[in-house]
Each structure stands twice: as structure tokens, then as C-alpha cells.
């Protein structure tokens, strides 16, 4: 059991995170301050939620790129709807409406995919374009900076706060609570519900899953509703933190999120992926992003470094596979070797 | 793969920006005002056509057109499709030709797609001046009018930043993305100008905001942590200076760090007031619209346009006349606007 | 008299103009073990699909547990306790053993959530029923074929199987694993569960089946106790012709004419210190259980998994084999075990497949592919190897298994290798084709080629090889001359290594 844990992808990612942190911290000790940790958490939270949105899709065996556009339409749409009606309350109503819009948008993806038996990627390419276009044309083309009174102070809603002499007051942002709650729910859902297991089964072998009696259409639909709801939620959190609602929110960031999910050990072919791995994957990408700033490395390098790490992560499972094959089913040969 | 995806993605997104909605929902009616009023002896009729009337940006441009009409006594009006679409735009140009206007100021969505229609107008004896189309082909336009040369604009940002930094100390640059050509011209020309003129200033690096304020904000906090002696920030995307300003305000460093960059009042207004953002720069589409119509009038009156001339429009007092990359004559102004706490309400767009 | 479980009566099934099953009747009792044998196209698979409700017979009746069916759906069949284990086992490679076993039950029971403790208990019970031990937390994708098969069986048992149908269950298994499987099934028979094996391997037919049914061209030819049948009879009844294996002519290889010499070859995790000589005109068999290193050795000689150390001398010159390209450019050919995955371009035409290895030699003076030359070369090999196809322009996928195997051979023979390595050349090939391939191998050797045959099919080795090397735990442990050994000895030696291994565990 311990061996499994040590050989798991999550553990490898954790090791890399620790190693990288030690390197960054030794070059720039501010990395080890509480303030720095809080900043890291704050910067990661929204992307963890977005990665949670994408994770079930990846396990199912697909790649979706439209979730960022769903975030945009859900958050910007909700905001414009409420602000033009003079809403001055807090974020709760934003979440309710935003998640609803997200769910509907996700359902559209799911519907098109299951109805016409299409590839997830192809459909999402179309719906991403559509939702950004829809938002820009029908809702508005410029960022909106008006905040309801109940949302104004959100960016500094800290559970606990610390002050730092160079960057001032920072704290543990409340959005960590969403990450924990959503994370636990998603973990439970994927591990303990039949629909969750069905997602893994379909990702493992779709034909066998169908033969076994999983309702593939229903499961696909649920996956996309989850994606939509969490995307909408993440969009609202990000906008409230930014203190502006942006019709092109997250544009071009979908592949970064996908990269984090893959770094976290999810297989792009489907069938594999965990909540904890995804969290670690996002934290790793965020640390890499910060590491380059903190260690004075130009940001042009960031893409390059993330690319290299992704290559390594694509190669490692293949190497493992190869090693396993080389050993064949000849575990006793290893003993023979050792005897020799 | 990733790169290819990104490319495809960005193409789609850009396309989506303009094409996603139902086609030609709101064709420009041929019975717009002005048209049938026969040109009186000394009055001209100029039609301005824009990419789309759905954007605030072009509504601001229309203000300039209407200001011109009022100031000059000529007929000037603006039309545009309800969504950005070259085909719809061409139809509008053709209806303007049929109406027999004297000049057309066109802000083409797709530059090459609009060229045949512009040529047709010219053949019908109508003067054509374009805006945001310095790549137009020779013979498809009389002149193209641009508020400024991007490199000169970058240098101007540097001049403003340097003066606020006391011409010394470390600064950082933000771009929306490392692949955004315009943003990179601004920052690269600014850097070159700084190296030439302000030897005591030092660029720490160019950072990507991904056009996302929260990304810029988080990155900038790390920059503050890493470079405590930082004295200046140059922003490119409209949200860049806002994000940096927020972090600076939270750290109580409003007076220590200068923030200058492209932005507009609706984005940066609040922080301009508190001083976290020192100066927002940009250009005013109203002035572009105004200048475009002035050039049409000069053409009608047979005035020769020469380098260094004054168009009588703010920012166009000393124009530069060059030839664009595809042969069209291009008029550059120096019509950047500088928005600070004092004048921000003049530029409420 | 035992209680009757299933009876089919006068089953006729036609596909278009072809009669796949022609008036077939038989029955099976509770706890009985039946073997269904026949060449490809004899109607075996059709029969299975009728019993499992996938096909509806055109005429005839089905009785299960006394219930009469004219038309039977797959659901009916499952409800009556018929469980078919197909060759892909219907398992999820990315899920654990426990979950794979329990999933069916969870779905049928309409559960909404998963109780992992129950899943594990359920799976443990399932594995205990067939008395095997497989770690419940292992991922199925990391297990051997044999283990996956056992999991599939345990799934079927837990689904209350009364009749277990296994389609070619032993194809990918080693002898040892086959034995374990037979043991499991026999155990189930004693509990009243009937079993039908569909098989090609004649020795196994006799080992497991209490009763054997032979189908040929859609008709039932034989239905009797397997104990009374010998391999020759079964072969004859399957093919309708006598296959003579006794009068094999061996061209005696010249002992001094060494074609290839291998010295102290090593591959970590594969094999150790392997040395042997291959003579011209010789068919050299290499056998051993799966995991003995024989497959690795074959792959090393072909450069697919190059050896770490040691020398290979071909025609007196030392050669380095670091890649497949090295092997082919030195005149070494290889016919892989998995002909579909590794040997053929299935969607391509037969002609293209044959020409694939020699495409360079088919250039005309302009350096372009000479199509005429390609077709005539291909036609020659189609004829020589008796590949059954109306034309070489059909895709390779249109051929039956045996003919595909001939095509792989043709592809390599067109390339005219000095040494040809064959890895399990007749796996999954029916008896008739098998005999043809054996004859061809011997003919090629007599024409001067050196052939290395990797196989664990003892009769095959005895029919074709001059000499047989036995590998065990990565080493060559014995060298048999065909003249001085017999099937039984060889079998015992092979199994002895099994026993030894087991003792060590």
C-alpha cells in the first residue's frame, strides 16, 4: 500500500513541489513567509475550482476548452443582470444565478455531444467561440467596474490576515473554503457514487462500459453540468476578486488549466485522475509561475519551463509502462538476476 | 500541438468576437436622414462607416463625427452594422455610393474585404479616408488617418514614466500577452527610448497579464516581494495598470511607485483619484472621427496634405505623412490622450 | 441421468446465401463440460451467439431450464444463467480487481452509491468461489491475461452463471495458466455449473472436455466423449482431410555450416548468458514458459528490444543489432506473435503488405514504384503460400486468421531473409492452416534458410524442428535433438520447470 502511494503520480508531484519550493526559498527567502503562502493560496483557489470543473471531463476521456467561456458568460451575465437592476447585496445571489447559467451552458455541450455522438473537443471548440461571442455581443463588450455594496470588500475578505512590510496586508482569503467544500464533494462524488465510477469506467473503456450497463448519455450529461456549474462559480469568484466583471474572462487560459490537470496525474486518454492530484497540479503551476518572478527569471521562460515539465510528465507514465513491459510478467526473473 | 491549439483558439475567439450572432439583424436602413437632402452649394455630405455600432468605442467616435458636423456646417453622420461584419459594412458603403455622398470615412473590419467597395466609391468620384487601416493597398483609399505611430506612443509612455520616476530606478513592463504585437511594440520602443535617454533606469522584465487583472495582480505582488526597490510600472492591457495600482494601494506605496500605461477612465478612474495609478494613456476615438472628416473636407476643397501640417484637431497639429506597408498614404497624428485625476471626467468612456 | 440444462434442436441460421448452421442439435447437462471445436467458419461463433441470444435462429428451438424459446434476447439468456466470456473479457483496465468484479452487481442492483467495504467483500467472495488469489487492489490493466480471465470467470459466477461459455479462452495463456484455468472450471463443474469451451488447441480439447462437439461447415460432425478421441481423429473430423505429420522429411542440417552464432547474450530482466548456434537448413525450436525469456530473446535477435551485451555472428561476421533496421539490413526476418498489431497493415491491400518490406527493390528506372513488378511479386507469394483470396487488391483485413498469418510470412519471405525468426507462428490458427504453415517452414529450411521457432506448442515443435532448446528463468537449460526425444519427455521437462517455479514461490 505504501509502495503504491510512493509510486503514485500525486506523490511525484508533491516531491517536485517540495523540491521547487526549497530551491525558490533558498534564492528568495520571502517565499517561506506566511504572507507568501497566503498569496499562493489566493492565486491558486480559482484555478483549482476551474481544474475541478475540467477534471471529470478529462477522466471521461475528453478535452473541453469551452469551460472558460462558460465562466465568462455566467459571471458577466449574472453581474450585468443584477447590477442593472440595482442589486446591492452580496455574492450569494451571484453564485445561485451564475451556477444556474453555467449548468445550462454545460448541458448544451452535453446535449450536443450525446445527441449527435460527437467528440467533446470538437463541440467545445464551437461552444467556446459561441459563448464568448454571445457575451460580447448580447451582454456587453467592456469590463464593468460597478460593484454592488455587498461585493465591494470581497477581495479582502480574509479568514485571518498578516501584514508584510513590502506588500502590505494580505491574508487567507475565504475562497479557500469553497475549494475545500467543492474538493470534498467532488472526491466523494467521484469515489462513492455510481455515476462517479461510471465516469472512470467510460474513460477506461467506453465500449465495455456500455456493455456493462452504464448509462453513458446520462453520465456525460452530469459531467458537463458539473463542469458548467463549477466554471460559472469560478468565474464569479475571479471577477469579484478582480473587482471587475469581464466579458472575455479567462480567455486563452483554458489550456493552462488543462495542463495543471494533466500535471496532477489525470490521463488525457481518460480513466485516471484524482481530486488531490488536481489540487497539487494547480499549486505546482502556480509555484512555477511565482518561482520565475521570485528567482528573477524572465517570464518568457515560464511557458518554456511549464512545457518542459509537461513533456516530462507525459514521458514518465510511458517509461513506467515500458519498464513494466520489459519486466514482462517475469517478476521472478528479477530475483534470478539478484541471485546471479 | 499546444501552440497550434492556441492559434486556432485565438482565431476562433477573434472571429467569435464579431461573428457569433445572428447575421445582419439590423441592416442599416437606406432611409437614414441626410441622404436625400441635395448638397447645397457650399455644404458637403460625409458618411462615416464603422465596424459595428454595438461597441461603446464607436459611439464615442460618433460624438467626434457629430462635433465635426456642428463645427463645420457640413453634413456628417455615422453608420455601421449591428455586428462587426465586412459584408454588411460593404453594403453600407454601397448604399452611401448610391446616395451620392461626397466623402466616406471608413473604419474597416476586414481591411482587404472592404477595399473593392472603397475603390468603387473612388471610381464614383467619392473621396475615401480610412481609420485603423494603415495596411490598406495603394489605390483603394485617398488617405488613412491614425492617431499616432505605435512606436512613438511607446516612447511617449516612457517619457511620462521616466519623469515620474525621477529618471532613475527599476521598473517593470506588463503586456497582455507576449504574442500581442501592438503591446510589444509599445514596450520595446519604450525600452529602447529608456536605454537611449535614461541610463539610470533599469528594466527588470516584461510580464504577461494574460489580459486578466487577477493574474496581473498576483504576479505584481510577487514582483513587489522580489524587487522592494521597484519605482515604476508600464502597463499595456487596459487592466494592467489597474491591477498594479491595486497591489500598490494595498501596500501603501502610492507615492513610491509610478504607474503609467494604456487604460481608460472607466477602468482606472478610482485608482487615478487615489494616486495609485499616476497616468492612463490612450487615444480618443472622437478625435479620430473628427480628424477623418477634416481630411475629407480638405480633399473636397483641394487642399494639399503635406508632412508637418496642422489639421486643426487636437493631436493633429503636426502630422507625419508616410506610406503604409501596402502603399496607402498614412497620416499619423500625435493624438494620444493623457488621463490623470484632474481631467479624467473629460474622457468618460 | 443428469438433469438437462440446455438443449438446442434443429438450429438453422443463414446469412444471406450462406448457411452458417445447418440443422444442429445438442444438449448439455448441469455440471457438464463440453468442448466445441471447429475450424474458422465452421459455425462455432454463430452457435455461441444463438445461445447467448445475440442471433435469432431462422429455424429450430432452444430449451433452457425447461423453458422453450423460439426467439431469445440477450437479457433472456442472462436471466437463464448463460454467461459468455469473450476474448476481451469486458474488463476496465483502469479500475481495481475488486471494482471490476463488483460493478455488474452494483449496476443491476441499481445502487446509487458505492460501499467500498461491500465491494471488497463481494469481490473476495467471488475469487474464493473459484479458489484463486489475486490482490483486490491491483489495477486490472497491470495483470496478466490469465488473471484477467480468472476475474472474468469470477464475475460470471457471481452473476449466478449456470452455463459458462468461454470463447477461445486459452489462446493467450501459457500451459501452466491453462492448467490452472482447467482446474477452476472443473471445480465449477462439480458445483453443477456447466461449461462450454470453444477451442482450437486439440490437446486441450482432450484434457478438459468430457464431451466434444465438432462442427464443420455448419454441421455437427461428432458429438461424443472426448476421451475416446485421439488428436488425429479430431483433426480429420475438423478439416475433412488427413493431416499427415509422421512422414515429415527433414533435410539434415550440416553441422559444420554455422549460419548464425550467438554468444553470451544478456538482457536485464530478460535472459542471461544465452549461447547457441543455428545451422543452415536448420529449424531451431526455442521453448519455455511465458516469462522464461524466450519472447525477449526473439525480440533481442530482431532488434526490437536490443540485448545489453554479448555477440551475434552471422555468416562468420560479427553484427550489431541495436534496432529493427539493423536486423533487417543483416537479413534477419521476424514474424511476430501478434500478427494483427505488429505484422500487418490491415486496411492496406494484400499486395501492398507483401511488398512493404521490399519496396526499395521495386523501383523502376525513374526511381518510382513499379506497380507491375509489385503485383507480380505479390501474386507469386500468394500462390506459393496458398493465401486464399480472389485478388491481391483486397485489404488484408478481409482474410481469415490463418490466411493473415500466411500473409505475414509472405511479407517476410519476399524479403528473402537469411534467418527467419518465428514467434508463435500458429497461435490462433486452425488445424488445417497450421499443418500448411508447418510444412512451409520445413520447406523453407530445406531451401537453405535458418529458422528459429519460438513456441510453447509441443506438437508444433516436434513437427517442425530439428533441435529444440528449452529456456527456464532466462537461461537455456537443455538442448533436445528431435530424433532422441518425444512429445511426452519434452512436455514433462517444460512442466518440470513449472513445478520448480511454483516450489520457489
What secondary-structure arrangement, pairings included, does this model have?
The complex is a heterotrimer of chains A (340), B (349) and C (505).
Chain A: H1 2-7, H2 9-27, H3 34-60, H4 67-83, H5 91-116, H6 120-139, H7 149-152, E1 158-164, E2 168-173, H8 175-192, H9 194-204, H10 206-212, H11 216-242, H12 254-263, H13 275-294, H14 300-327, H15 331-339
Helix pairs in contact in A: 2-13, 3-8, 3-9, 3-11, 3-12, 3-13, 4-5, 4-6, 4-11, 5-6, 5-11, 8-9, 9-10, 9-11, 12-13, 13-14
Chain B: H1 2-19, E1 45-49, H2 56-72, E2 75-79, H3 86-99, E3 103-106, H4 111-123, E4 127-131, E5 143-146, H5 150-165, E6 169-175, H6 181-197, E7 201-208, H7 213-226, E8 230-235, H8 240-250, E9 258-262, H9 265-274, E10 279-283, H10 285-300, E11 320-323, E12 329-332, E13 336-339
Parallel strand pairs in B: 1-2, 1-3, 3-4, 4-5, 5-12, 6-7, 6-8, 8-9, 9-10
Antiparallel strand pairs in B: 10-13, 11-12
Helix pairs in contact in B: 2-10, 3-4, 5-6, 7-8, 8-9
Chain C: E1 4-15, E2 18-29, E3 33-38, H1 44-51, E4 59-64, E5 67-69, H2 74-79, E6 82-85, H3 97-108, H4 116-129, H5 145-158, E7 163-167, H6 175-190, E8 194-199, H7 202-208, E9 211-216, E10 219-225, H8 231-239, E11 258-267, E12 271-279, E13 283-287, H9 294-301, E14 309-314, E15 317-319, H10 324-329, E16 332-335, H11 339-343, H12 350-355, H13 371-384, H14 401-413, E17 419-423, H15 431-446, E18 450-454, H16 458-464, E19 467-472, E20 475-481, H17 487-504
Parallel strand pairs in C: 3-8, 3-9, 6-7, 7-8, 13-18, 13-19, 16-17, 17-18
Antiparallel strand pairs in C: 1-2, 1-4, 4-5, 9-10, 11-12, 11-14, 14-15, 19-20
Helix pairs in contact in C: 3-4, 3-5, 4-5
Structure, described:
Chain A is built from 15 helices and two strands. Chain A is mainly alpha-helical and 340 residues long. Chain A has a single domain, classed as ABC transporter involved in vitamin B12 uptake, BtuC (Orthogonal Bundle), CATH 1.10.3470. Chain A has a two-stranded antiparallel sheet with strand order 1-2. In chain A, strand 1 and strand 2 form a beta hairpin. Chain B has 349 residues and is α/β, with parallel strands linked by helices. The longest helix of chain B has 18 residues. By secondary structure, chain C is α/β, with parallel strands linked by helices. Chain C has a six-stranded mixed sheet, with helices on both faces. In chain C, helix 3 packs across helix 4, helix 3 runs parallel beside helix 5 and helix 4 crosses helix 5. The longest helix of chain C has 18 residues. Chains A and B meet through helix 3, helix 6, strand 2, helix 11 and helix 13 of A and helix 1, strand 7, helix 7, helix 8 and helix 9 of B.
